[in-house]
Amino acid sequence: MRQAQIEALQQRLCAAADTELLQRFKRVDAEIKADGSLVTEADLLMQERMKRELADLCPEYGFLGEEMIHEQRQAQLESAGTGLWILDPLDGTSNFAVGIPYFAVSLALVINREVRLAVVYDPCRREFFHALPGHGAWLNGQPLGRRRPLTPLAKGIGLVDYKRLPRGLALRLAESPPYGSQRSFGSVALDFCWVAAGRVHVYLHGRHDLWDYAAGLSILHQAGGHSVTLEGQRNPPLGLQPRSTAAALDADLFREWCAWLEISL
């Protein structure tokens, strides 16, 4: 995409988030979907708003949103053709529903199963993260990746979601953590961006979906970061099958983290 198109996309996405999300923050009730996750009115309205905005801005691309049913997502992925937008309209719905200001909009443009543009917007902090493969990643126009944490793992901050980890690994982390302290914030897309920004040192999540990681993981990679699945896959293909991720911005820290996790690189 050209820079003018990216700027137009930023304006539309930020305006939509400010209207559809922020104006409903702390003012909506959540419902439970068939898969057990939460959904609010804001998720649905933000998805419909962005579907219209993207069709107007780039009508040549298809659209896959989290709030579609599985069969619709699969059909969109299989018939992507010239390109496909992948949207999580509200990543961090549980936080949003109870008033925790840690959630984001995640959007990736995928062509031939490769991310060509990645965007994550945090409306609470007005932080716009984006990346273009081969050209780097930015936060509000400033390059990411320059602030590389030099903290050893034993003194670092681990951003870890325990809920979806294998039981043995979760117990090992709880009983003998290799890092200095641990956090879990509740938005996968934003978590990846915080790793890219050097705000936390190592990351671990046992299971997230395509719309959770497509944009955020690309931003981390373009900032110079590293990732691998718990099974040792460095760059598994994009798809609807959930995946795990261990990650870090700094290469040495990443290797130390993977060694502790017993992941072969």
* Order of strands in the sheet with most strands: 3-4-5-6-7-8-9
How large is the radius of gyration? Answer: 18 Å
Which percent band covers the strand fraction?
25-35%
Order of helices and strands: HEEHEHEHEEEEEEHEHEHEEH
Q: Identify the CATH class of the largest domain.
A: Alpha Beta
Whole-Å distance between the termini?
33 Å
Count every helix, treating DSSP H or I runs of 4 or more residues as helices: 8
Word description of this protein:
The protein has 265 residues and is α+β, with helices and mostly antiparallel strands. It has 2 domains: 3-143, Fructose-1,6-Bisphosphatase, subunit A, domain 1 (Fructose-1,6-Bisphosphatase, Chain A, domain 1), CATH 3.30.540.10; 153-261, 3-Layer(aba) Sandwich (D-Maltodextrin-Binding Protein, domain 2), CATH 3.40.190. 35% of the residues lie in helices and 27% in strands. The chain has a 7-stranded mixed beta sheet with strand order 3-4-5-6-7-8-9, with helices on both faces. β5 and β6 (114-122) form a beta hairpin. It is globular, with a radius of gyration of 18 Å.
